[in-house]
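quick one before i forget lol
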Amino acid sequence: MGRRMPYVVQLPESFAAYNSEDPDARRDFQSYPLVVVLHGWDADECALLPALSGMATWHGIVLLYPTMEGDGGWFNSPIRPDYRYEDMVMGEIVPHVLRNYPVHTDGARHAITGFSMGGQGALMYAIKHPHAFGAVGSISGILDIRLHAGKWGMHQMLGAALLDGRPNPVYTRYSITAGFADALPAIQARSSLFILIEAGRQDFAYADAQRFVEKLDALNVRYEAELDHDGHHSFAYFQSRIHRHIERLVRAIQLD
């Protein structure tokens, strides 16, 4: 996007063996699965770190936290050539991490998840880049942006929600439920992509999750969902769910 963007990588304690000068330690070293975590609107690459403290060591994974600045989402804007977060994350940051950290290069050993707009981004990336991930999750994800068209500055990146009094079709194309989900049957026919959806009943994004799982049922797409519990759209809710959430994603990509 023409500028430097920060990101955070969390490594397990066993990474010390990879950095060791002992050739035997380096020779016996095993690469790690990669889990990408996308934050929500009005946050940054450090926002979710406290909730995932110790997870890299506990599960033997590398955690990657990209950043998204300002309004909008994790997509490429069709009207702003300088706003291309999909290109940045999938075209620059993830390849950089694969080149420079001891992670598996096989996409089946990678997972991606996110909170709020990060959940939208995680599913969008997993669907648009089907060879890059073996598992995808969403916690309180904004999975049907048509329901939230006036929020989070999305009109600056996608255009007005209404054009001549009619819904802007861009919002349908960028909706996980209405747009991207139709590709999932073909993706699962070629791979075993694991899908995990979570939202609490008091969450304003609960309707997004309901619509999405209804669409998955209609498409006969395999998934797991946790929607039968209380929870608001908050960091406290994310923190209460993320450990078990990551554990299930990691289990799905541990192919050995």
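fyi The radius of gyration is 18 Å.
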